[in-house]
Each structure stands twice: as structure tokens, then as C-alpha cells.
């Protein structure tokens, strides 16, 4: 899943000391740690607009 920190926050990465998720989107595993941060509003999940076979965005 791709996430970014909510405005004004730096969120620590799972199992990483001194490494943070900021406003730049990053890909992270769908672990309980990240899902809780999304549920709490500290992280925002980024959804990608997928194109169908005709090339039109859905």
C-alpha cells in the first residue's frame, strides 16, 4: 500500500530508528502497524487510478 503522512506530521517507519514517513508517498507493507496509523488518521492511504482496457480512467 502507498501512504503519506497527514499534514504537519512525521510518522516513524516500522522497525526503523530515525526513519520517517513525511508528505512524500512511500510504499509500505500492509502490516497491522501501518493499518492502525491509517485508521488513526496519522497516515493517508494513496489510491492509484487504474485504467481499464480502453485506457479510460474509472
Structure overview:
This protein has one helix at residues 32-40; strands at residues 2-5, 11-12, 20-21, 26-27, 43-46. It contains one helix and five strands, in the order ββββαβ. It starts with a strand and ends in a 12-residue tail after the last strand. The chain is 16% helix and 24% strand. The chain has 58 residues and is α+β, with helices and mostly antiparallel strands. The radius of gyration is 13 Å and the shape is globular. It has a three-stranded antiparallel β-sheet. The relative contact order is 0.29.
Helical proportion, percent range: 10-25%
Largest β sheet strand count, sense and barrel closure: 3 strands, antiparallel
Please report the distance between the alpha carbons of the first and last residues. 19 Å
pLDDT < 50 stretches: none
| Count of DSSP strands | 5
Mean pLDDT: 87
Structural class: alpha+beta
Helix-strand pattern: EEEEHE
- Quick one: overall form? globular
Number of helices: 1
Strand content: 15-25%
Strand order of the largest sheet: 4-1-5
Radius of gyration: 13 Å
